[in-house]
Amino acid sequence: MIYTALFLISITLIALELIIMRVFSVASWSTFGSMVISIALLGFGLAGTILTFLQKNVKKAPGKWLTITSLALTPAIAISYILVQFIPFNPVFIAFEFIQYFWLGCYYFLYAIPFFIGAFFISISFIIISTHVHKLYFWNMLGSGIGGILVLFIMYLLPADKLIYFIIVISSAGNICILFYRKDNGIPAPVHYKKILGVGGLLFLSCILLVFFGRIQPSKLKSVELDRVTYSDFTRKHYEYGPTGEIEVYASSQYHFAPGLSDNVIFYIDEMPKDVFWGLYINGDGPINIMGNLSPDQKQYIDFLPMSGVYKVLDHPKVLLIHLGGGFSTHVALHNQSESVTIVEPNEVFVSLMKNKKVIRDFNNNLLDDPRINIVVNEPRAYTSTSEGVYDLVEIGLIDSIGLSQRVGNPITEDYIYTVEAIRDYMKCLSDNGMIAFTVWNHIAPPRNVPKLLLTIIQALKKENIRNPGKRIFGFHLMYSTATVIVKKSDFTQSEIDKLNSFCYDMSFDVFWYPGMEKRDIDFEKVLASYRYKYDRQSFSAGSENLEQTVRRDLSDFYHSVCVWSFEGKEKELYKSYIFNIKPAIDDSPYFTSYMKPESIGMFLDDLDAVSEEWGYFLITGTLIQSIIFGFLIILIPLIGCRKSIFKQTRGAVGVIIYYSCLGLGYMLIEIFLIQRLVFFLANPIYSISIVITFMLIISGLGSLYGSRITNSNPARTIRIVTILIACCILLYIFFLSPLLDSLLGLPFFIKAVIAVFIIAPLAFFMGMPFPTGLSELSKHQKSLLPWAWGMNGALSVTGSVLAHVITIHFSFTILLIFALLLYLLAGILFKVNVLMERTA
Amino acid sequence: MQKSSNIFFTGLLCFCLFIVLIISCTPGKKDSDSVQNGEQGTDTDTEISGKNETGEDVPAEDPGRVDLRQRTEWPPLDSKDNYIEWMKNNRPCSEEFLEKRWDRAMRIRNFHKETPDNVLQAFLLTPREIFARDYNRDVAYDMNWHMIEDGQTISGPHLVCRMTENLDIKPEHKVLEIGTGSGYHSALMTQMANNVYSIEIKTNLYHVTDSIYTSILDKYPEYRNVQRKNADGYYGWEEYAPFDRIVVTCGIDHIPPSLLKQLTVGGIMVIPVGPMAGQQVILKVTKTQDEEGKIHLTREDIYGGKITEHFVPFTKEDGSWHSQENQ
After folding, report:
1. What is the number of domains present in chain B?
2. Cα–Cα distance between A199 and A721 in angstroms, integer?
């Protein structure tokens, strides 16, 4: 029964983690959710530490302790969840109001409670059944793995504010199982109806409390809440929920979308279209515009949008649109007489919404039923890699209208749309004279995203061995609105250049590069220096005072100079001189929106407002720092508290610290790597993460079970071999995984899912052995250290998950893997410390 | 056997509870439901207006209306004491805030030495504390923005002055403001132009600000020159167009063509532009005509391309908050 209870509690804890993230997404911002959850999960580490002190008491009556912790879990979940809803934490004020740190601390504390109790339960299990660590570890991993995928399906059935009920039901089931376990006298206990009723009572009470007080309180600063008070005729037209999130569609006559609209529209059009936009919100963020049915007269305004420019040089093109969004680009393509429009959209929820929901179909006049339109539900890269030479135009127009423009700044997430390899893929699916058109926001000062896009494009062209990339690029922008870059597979003809220039002239768009453009007389070094001077005056010598005033910072000149320097091969100089990271994004480090350089952080400390858009970067860095601090505290507390009584000598203790730290960090680095790489490969964001996590954990659990059989005779030797096998697997990943995945990208989802499991399996299987084997040995020789080692592993796992992101942002996946490889090798060498403790004690 | 039945009974109990919970939250799931929030927006003029002899729009039958061209006395800028003395003699004012107002004005000038005298004088004449709300009145002259109703803010004094400076307002100008908000910016511009028109989209905010204006008309007759309505400012105010100056105080992803049309040749518009729900930069748009009769629209960054401004700043429901300085 204890294994079943452990299995259910493991489901509870993993489900709680995922559900807290969902609640954060709906109530405020998911990125802060990840920050909170990373600390709350340190409750695992804390449980191990506390148990280190309490283990004598626990050993006296383990059944009692198990029952108490188990029974405490359900009400703890309900109460902490309820209390959290009343915390007036406001993430957007965290940089300015000290009280917000206090509220954030309350989040940490309250959410850590259920994790602490659940982890305490698991720790006790390890102490009680220390002879079957491998088996316990298997059930723990199995529960965690199944919990992840179970939550995914529950999200189809329940909205965000009801998901908590699922958790407390599972938790209560775990409670009941533990009632049947009493090992105090070695005999299974008889069934106690009163206790079962007690568990039912706790469940009932928790439900009642949640019904009355557990309602999610969304922040009034969420876009949907702000728009609700702004637009007087704000009317909800559609609502649904699922793993993608809470999706709402609102109508209002006061939505006005026309990104990058030329000011010259006033000379040609009497009136802008009215009542033709709805707003789509995901978890309250947005709006993404949904365009309704436009009359021919109303459609005229599309001609004045920057996305229309590329159609001036394409005659009835076959178009591939990357992402469906609200259908805006589709309207532009159809309006411009495209022969066919293929839309590749990875999220089937959007497709279903736009294509199948009657209320939306009525609004957009069955737009997607147009015979010219073909919708493909797939990851764009997976699709483009299998569509060679088909399209005249690949259009990527403001698809990141949320991503690059959140109120809370640039989130740093993997993005495989804007990488060097992605652009090369798009090139492959173009016909001989085909073009790619990017339109992005152009509103960040000092400029970041447009220069980075230009450098990524030019780098891709160079990788294609194109000698003169300048002949294949046409770029224009409208000041602080949008920038558009058109890339042609062959050289632009003079006629095309003339037509595009004419379009830009008519629209008053500022052309910053076209083939044959003369190099402007700009002292770009001085411009770059002026940006450094603005934020880092101390590093400049006397006499530089006029640097800021005398330099004219013009966006068009800046973009022009970026092109020129890159064509001239001076990219490295540019990367070095500019205050932001504008190196091209690559698949090995696919973070287009990561603009901060670690060496530049210092210069912005006095003026954080200047880099407020880089909030995502500071969040990840802050999360890493806090998890390291808390992690170290958890590790060190037992050392400081009862060093003499627990550790007879220090040498072995240091080894134990390093061994379990290596395993905690190493496992998470590999897990995060596999999630990031395979989610892109599987091309279905909703299911991919669950598949990767579930199979990884379950296979590791199986590895643990198998490890119990093979490690009995000579565990040190076995683990050394296992770690060498792990290192070999990692080396195979480093050299062969990317080419393998790229070559299989176009296969159907189910086949790719099976391949992904086979890719995960060997490594996950071996990675499941060192930790339980270490615990098993430790329990034989120095049992008192068992909970501490378990907690340490938990704490370092949290740090590892954040560290993995930081490493890939600043370096690459390859560096991440090398680091993980070294950690496992080190663990292999240090395994003997688990045995060493006894010999030297 | 007994053990098995217990497990079955308990499992059944949990399952039933779970099913009940699912059923209880199922109605309405994934259904289209039209929930009307709020009322339909109605255009509400607060003043009835007419035309004067020169064809200029003026609030009709309003004897208290002030013609700024007749104003000869302006607050002195030479010293704090002189300013306070002048204000006591010439204006209804709360002495408590005069010193703060002067100090802030001098900081504005110190920070941006090109701030024109007429902007500073308008700032010194405008009782910002009246337009701030009770919960942030004491910090009304701090340089940061403050929260008001419906997630909106009263912009920081430096930003208001910089935007006003870029508008280059003259007394004879007709000025249109999109986004009345707290009413402070329109009040300040009323010290510089005879005709100020202001539109607010949020009904509740419109009424709150309207009540503030109404309550101080006797003390400050120049505010009779402000005409206000509750409507979507995207379409401007056709009835009184064209306008010499337009200031937009809420973000949008493009410059509304209706506003550009309602701007006179030679006119200036100051507007924050950027993605919806994102960050905006403040543009100065100038409409000119060349010798051949062609109209030109020019965009400039009011900070010379140096600064990104959070124009619709993050707001909270009550109380003030302390941001870094808006430059």
Report:
1. 1
2. 47
